[in-house]
Amino acid sequence: MKKVFLTMTAAAFLFTACNNSSSTTENTTPTTEETAPAEDANVAEVELSAGDDMKYDLTEIKVKEGQTVKLTLVHTGTAPVVAMGHNFVLLKQGVDLAKFAEAAMAAQATDYIPADKAGDVIAHTKTIGGGETTEVEFPAPAKGTYEFLCSFPGHSAMMKGHFIVE
């Protein structure tokens, strides 16, 4: 009987405490809500990693037409730039990747972007070595499929992919 009485008393107390709508006190302390910043639909943030194994972690990148692309290239390896440099080069549609890569071999002074083929490039990063990071920001081109590569000598055979604009 004591248990029933205690349970009923506790329930009545809780009901009264939770349903007290005649309170005249008002909380005047301002409250602040912390909200995460809204993601900008007009910005596509892409992180691309590459290491000493001569491979990008992504072979396909998808963005929307008209977005601003903020691409970050991270070299996860340890080899210096002279031995295992990596970059990101986005080619215009119709550019022959193999011919571009061949011409890039002789373009060390310009980050492996041949001066006579600069018009074939939509965007590119600088060439970085192990432990380094670089970024490039550019507007996504028209809808379609484009090719990207690392233009460091000999890397494009394994380090390439498709950049798809929807």
Q: What report would you give on this structure?
A:
The protein has a single domain, classed as Cupredoxins -  blue copper proteins (Immunoglobulin-like). The strands form 2 sheets. It has a 5-stranded mixed sheet, with no helix packed on it. The protein has a 3-stranded mixed sheet with strand order 1-3-6, with no helix packed on it. It contains 3 helices and 8 strands; from the N terminus they run αβββαβαββββ. The chain is globular. The protein has 166 residues and is an alpha/beta fold.
Low-confidence stretches: 1-38
The percent range for strand residues is: 25-35%
- The termini sit apart by 72 Å
- Give the SSE order as H and E letters: HEEEHEHEEEE
Largest sheet: 5 strands, mixed
